[in-house]
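Honest question from a wet-lab person: if I give you the sequences of every part of a complex, can you actually get the arrangement of the whole thing, not just the pieces? Trying it with mine:
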Amino acid sequence: MMRTLALAGLVFLALAPGLTFAVTPDEMLADPKLEARAEALSTGLRCMVCQNESIDESDASLAHDIRVLIRQQMLAGRSDAEIRAFLVARYGDFILLKPPFKPETFLLWGAPVLLLLAGAAAIAASAMQRKAAPPSAPLSAEEKAKLAALVGEERR
Amino acid sequence: MIVETGHFALVLALALALVNAGVPLWGIAARDRRLMAVAPSVAFAGFLLIAISYAALTYAHVTSDFSLVNVIENSHSAKPLIYKITGVWGNHEGSMLLWVLILSLFAAAVAVSGRAMPIDLHAAVLAVQSWIAAAFLLFILLTSNPFARLVNPPIEGNDLNPLLQDPGLAIHPPLLYLGYVGLSITFSFAAAALICGRIDAVWARLVRPWTLAAWTFLTLGIAMGSYWAYYTLGWGGFWFWDPVENASLMPWIAATALLHSATVMEKREALKVWTIFLAILAFSLSLVGTFIVRSGVLTSVHAFANDPRRGVFILAILVFFIGGSLLLFALRANALKPGGFFVPVSREGALVLNNLVLSTCCATVFIGTLYPLALQALNGAKISVGPPFFNLTFVPLFLPLCAVMPIAQTLAWKRGDLLGSVQRLFFAFVCGAALMLFLAVARGGPAISILLAGLAVYLMIGAFTDLGTRIFGRAALVNGHVLRHALGLPRSTYGTALAHAGIGLSLLGLAATGWGAQKILAMKPGDVARVGSYELALESVGPQTGPNYTATVAHMAIRSGGSKVAQIDPAVRFYPTRQMSRSEAGIKTIDFGQVYVGISDGTTPGSVNARLYWKPLVTFIWFGAIVMALGGLCSLSDRRLRIGVARRVRKLAVAPQAAE
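Yes, you can. This is the full assembly:
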């Protein structure tokens, strides 16, 4: 339900009456190779008025405009990187669903590796510590008597 | 009157929760068994009161009582009955009421079933559960009252969001909440163990069924939500790494890690501190999820700042419970002595590895979900963390874990034999490799799908290898008692095998997405399009009228080799009250794959824009989750978890007159 509530929220934001979901046939390029490229590029770009949707999946008119723009630029012979750079210059990093690797995101990209290493180090350290710990002292006479009594109780 | 009764019952439930948050703890401190014995009955009464309150709200929805703000905003007199009932939890206030209903349901279940538990632990668990209940009841009554009335009621309501008018709403939220909120019990158990100083194998055994139950529900809830999104969105996506999905995935990962570490604690008295920590963490992540979804922080930091009352309240609850439990943890956990010894290559060692990787996975999802918010709050920079990030971080962590899983299953406790384990998995390796080779020749790609398919098959066979060797082991074959051997094995062993195989099945479904076909085109009646090995013929397009919507329906025939296989009727519905449309995909399952068609209104009258898909083996993705949940159920029925029951039966048998 959480998911759907978000869906609901996103639909409130993005949906005008009359459903025209995602890519429509009239937007598509005739050349299947170019169209596949456009689709691949679109799935990595965020629809900025939606919640966590790519422009390839979105119904919003902004997403439609960018889809058309991408295809126009592709027909003009621009490369994926050029188109992406153009869009980032226009809309900022926010449009990239894959965050760029730069000082602000070092922590984001580095976190999984750092955490894995830190966790492994912590486990190794605790194992070492355990190995270094002296073996427990043998039971005293009093403890042995207590143990015998307890075991006897259990048997009964 | 009924509505007021519901409101009053809710206030009364809060009063009882406050009583139960104090008296049993006082009893523990004073070592007074009578005070501790208060807890179960009060917990049960609290559940009854919240159930009454919930029933009252349902009554208001079913009778379309438009004097209630909640009913006006989320209902309509023409809405079908099932959505009047499920619509109760299809909004903020109602869903929070369901939240506390399930919270108190679990408390009542513990109250009833916990007679075999040490009395102080039992009382402490219920007390902690009451703290949580009190906090959320207060939240509902102060910020999200579902029983608020309107002086001049309108004649008609605003209807429920069309996306929610779906059978999925009847199943998904209750399942998800049973899992999500069910983890509160493990949290309460952990806090109670710290309060009572009972952190041992007995505790691990007592908490296991609750963790298993919550995990099983959460698994089903997430899978159901995924399938719902899949058939509702009209283009067949099923997982988006959306913050809301991540909010439910994080507790699931933590609960999975907890299930594994609790096994070590139960069997070997090791990993005690860590297990307690995970039990706290799992529910803390549920709370974080509730905060993410309920506070509005998701839409943007600004939406949160505009109406911060609810968000701040949940944040306060979050800080109180996570902070409080971690403080308790820091104070008490140091007193724990390390448990049983084991070498790195052993079942315990493998489970530690499992926990390391799962924790990292969980933290990755956590950071990926919250990083954009944190960064924006810090320096105003806006970035997006979408599926590509998770595919590059989560997936490389998770897949190796899958590869290790069967090996871990065949390792012995304390001291394992890695070479022996790998040898026993020879058959699984060979099958996986053979499939990869076959696919590489037959399909040629994509590489990731081939890799995933091979891994999936290895995982499924490997999951049952240990079981197979134990059933068909030499002793059994010599004596010919294969069946007796099979029945004699603990059910938790079957549970493990099923759950792991379920992951394999889901992976196979995911792998097969790489061999799907799609076509997006405008169609008019008479047109035929080919997708995969099927031909889809659009026969006619016509209007349809539902109770509270109008629709355009496309009637399509699915043909294979010239003959008609099936008929599908994808539609697009328009709900006038909310001026919203939603797609009703046409789906036909053929050999575990699906023909999937979504339509929208075309540019010229009589035509439709259609998205046609052939998704081979796609149902395995969700069948895998169902198999995992079956594994959970199987494990839940294990004899060693029913010890309390057995003891009670014995007591009755010995002294039938002496009633409890």
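Two things worth pointing out. Confidence is low (pLDDT under 50) at residues 1-20 of chain A. Residues 106-132 of chain A form the longest helix (27 residues).
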